[in-house]
């Protein structure tokens, strides 16, 4: 049932309500889309997007695999917002893009609170990585997937003139172990296995990554998971895509499939098993490269080799725990196996972080998310209380991964952001928002990038990409980005 919102008072209509959204990834622009299109016809919104980078789109631009341009179509929502409501607005709502502005540093959270009736934190949850507490985990050839993804997707933090990210020496590596089997792990596997010229050259992959992949000597990629087939974190679409590469698949141990009671499985799991069975039983492809899915194994030690590379990874074999209350739990056995590899890539999850000023503002971040209830940010007064006695921070909201933790596809983020937007509209309609002083000082943003400047860079990237036969040529260095924008 669609929500109904109370009418805004004449006092509210005397001037637009001001909304700030921190982050321009899917969590941010889907929230804005819903606010702008579902708000009462009587209300005006002045909405400002704040983005740390000079470029919009967040995880869509820097997280989605280069060979998935259809997933990046979600960016059309951000483009439509700026086309419909940017500039002088449309007579009702007005939207600005303020890129190259880092909230918590360039602008404090307290300053935001002095200037906006509602503030949505949607800055993502990809600032750090989950870690393994095992010997060798800090070796240079044990690489977080997040960093590898940001490198091949051209994230400017990894192309800085100082402290530039150094990618793994793929031209000196034969075998790679990817720890984890979610969709990010499969993206990384495709990067390593697919033919660089046939598969990647026309995409928006960074040119530096393209050049290194063309020199790559990687022959085998193993994708290792601690649990079984039914607990695989990848989607059926992603695993089918990997199977369809012209690369040899090393079939699973037949016993793993034989143990499954397919009749009791749901539709998605049945489809997953049938896909794996189909390709396990198919004739092997003629290819110099190969890959494998390996289950019930956990790394216990990364063993150093020569030239800052690994020699091998030692795994413990796991087995189902046979716990009726925890049917997906596994336990370690006494059996170990050591596999040769020069590189390990950890795809075991992301970590977020709080912004400077959370404590002063009276909100808190732990458990890999900003504490909130249905998108409404909780005050630190709520600590130790049950949800029925929660105390909210008026006017503050969360959307995207910072709301629920780093999980879920873009479609999930969309629906969840709509829920946050609904709660914002409900609160605005019921006079629950930050009351602003009539004489509040305007924010000074001398280095902010506006939408017109971003479009200059966008036009350059598309034109240069067309010249090179690519979907887009990504400018990766921040200073070069800014040069193209002015």
Description:
It is an enzyme of class 1 (oxidoreductase). Belongs to the ferredoxin--NADP reductase type 1 family. Its EC number is 1.18.1.6. NADP(+) binds at residues 181-184, 226-227, 238, 408. InterPro entries: FAD/NAD-bd_sf (IPR036188), FAD/NAD-binding_dom (IPR023753), Ferredox_Rdtase (IPR055275), Ferredox_Rdtase_adrenod (IPR021163). With 486 residues, this protein is an alpha/beta fold. The chain folds into 2 domains: 8-127 and 352-449, Rossmann fold, CATH 3.40.50.720; 128-350, FAD/NAD(P)-binding domain (3-Layer(bba) Sandwich). Helices cover 32% and strands 20% of the residues. It contains 17 helices and 20 strands. The strands form 5 sheets. Strands 3-2-1-4-20-19-18 form a 7-stranded mixed beta sheet, with helices on both faces. Helix 16 crosses helix 17. The protein is globular and about 70 Å long. The two termini are 48 Å apart.
Strand content: 15-25%
The overall pLDDT, averaged over residues, is 93
| CATH fold-level assignment of the largest domain | FAD/NAD(P)-binding domain
User: End-to-end span in angstroms?
Assistant: 48 Å
CATH superfamily of the largest domain: FAD/NAD(P)-binding domain
Q: If helices are DSSP runs of H or I spanning 4 or more residues, what is the number of helices?
A: 17
DSSP strand tally: 20
Helix-strand category: alpha/beta
- Basic shape: globular
Low-confidence spans: pLDDT under 50, at least 5 residues? 4-13
CATH level 1 class label of the largest domain = Alpha Beta
**Strand line-up across the major sheet:** 3-2-1-4-20-19-18
Largest sheet: 7 strands, mixed
Global Rg? 24 Å
GO molecular function, one term: oxidoreductase activity
Keywords: FAD, Flavoprotein, Mitochondrion, NADP, Oxidoreductase
Cofactor: FAD
Binding site for FAD: 51, 59, 103, 401, 408-410
């Amino acid at each position: 049932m669609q929500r109904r919102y109370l009418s805004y008072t004449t006092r509210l209509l005397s001037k637009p309500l001001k909304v700030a959204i921190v982050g321009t990834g899917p969590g941010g622009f889907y929230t804005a889309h819903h606010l702008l299109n579902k708000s009462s016809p009587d209300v005006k919104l002045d909405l400002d997007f704040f983005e740390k980078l000079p470029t919009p789109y967040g995880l869509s631009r820097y997280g989605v695999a280069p060979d998935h341009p259809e997933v990046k179509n979600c960016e059309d929502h951000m483009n439509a917002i700026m086309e419909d409501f940017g500039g002088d607005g449309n007579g009702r709502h007005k939207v600005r893009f303020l890129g190259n502005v880092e909230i918590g540093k360039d602008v404090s959270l307290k300053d935001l609170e002095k200037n906006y009736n509602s503030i949505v934190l949607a800055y993502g949850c990809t600032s750090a990585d989950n870690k393994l507490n095992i010997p060798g985990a800090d070796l240079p050839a044990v690489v977080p997937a997040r960093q590898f993804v940001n490198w091949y997707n051209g994230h400017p933090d990894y192309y800085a003139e100082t402290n530039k990210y150094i990618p793994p020496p793929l031209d000196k590596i034969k075998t790679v172990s990817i720890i984890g089997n979610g969709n990010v792990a499969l993206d990384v596997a495709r990067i390593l296995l697919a033919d660089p010229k046939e598969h990647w050259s026309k995409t928006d992959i960074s040119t530096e990554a393209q050049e290194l992949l063309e020199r790559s000597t990687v022959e085998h990629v193993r994708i290792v998971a601690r649990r079984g087939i039914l607990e695989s974190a990848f989607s059926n679409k992603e695993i089918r895509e990997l199977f369809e590469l012209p690369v040899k698949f090393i079939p699973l141990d037949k016993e793993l499939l034989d143990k499954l009671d397919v009749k009791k499985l749901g539709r998605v799991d049945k489809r997953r098993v049938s896909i794996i069975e189909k390709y396990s039983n198919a004739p092997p492809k003629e290819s110099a490269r190969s890959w494998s899915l390996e289950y019930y194994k956990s790394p216990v030690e990364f063993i150093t080799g020569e030239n800052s590379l690994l020699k091998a990874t030692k795994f413990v074999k796991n087995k189902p725990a046979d716990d009726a209350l925890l049917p997906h739990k596994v336990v370690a056995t006494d059996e170990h196996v050591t596999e040769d590899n020069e590189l390990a890539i950890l795809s075991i999850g992301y970590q977020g972080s709080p912004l400077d000023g959370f404590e002063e503002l009276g909100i808190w971040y732990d458990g890999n998310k900003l504490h909130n209830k249905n998108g409404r940010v909780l005050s630190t007064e709520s600590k130790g209380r049950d949800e029925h006695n929660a105390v909210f921070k008026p006017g503050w909201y969360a959307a995207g991964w910072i709301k629920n933790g780093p999980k879920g596809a873009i479609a999930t983020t969309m629906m969840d952001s709509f829920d946050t937007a609904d709660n914002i509209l409900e609160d605005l309609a019921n006079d629950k928002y930050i009351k602003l002083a009539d004489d509040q000082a305007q924010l000074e943003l001398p280095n902010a990038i506006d939408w017109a400047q971003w479009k200059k860079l966008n036009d350059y990237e598309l034109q240069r990409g067309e010249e090179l036969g690519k979907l887009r040529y990504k400018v990766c260095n921040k200073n070069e980005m800014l040069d193209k924008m002015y």
